[in-house]
Amino acid sequence: MKKLADFIEKNKHLMWWVKDYKKIKAESIVEATLNYGDWEEVQTLIKILGIKKVAKIFRSKSPPSPMGRTNYFPEVINYFNHYFDKYASS
């Protein structure tokens, strides 16, 4: 599996709310995979996009909004903050 389109096709169960898979953005794919994917799916996504890009997307989208809302589960934020600090630090 080399392309993001192939990853989406194989992992539609992670993005069950999407009607048009061709229009889904990388930010939504990262969010769904980190929140709902298993370790193998996360690692496959990292191989496709690169760990630095996945970390950048995660870090830009995981902080709460001014209203205090985020789409990432608290456990996911905690784990991947540590993971990306260790493996994707600049």
TrEMBL record:
This is Uncharacterized protein.
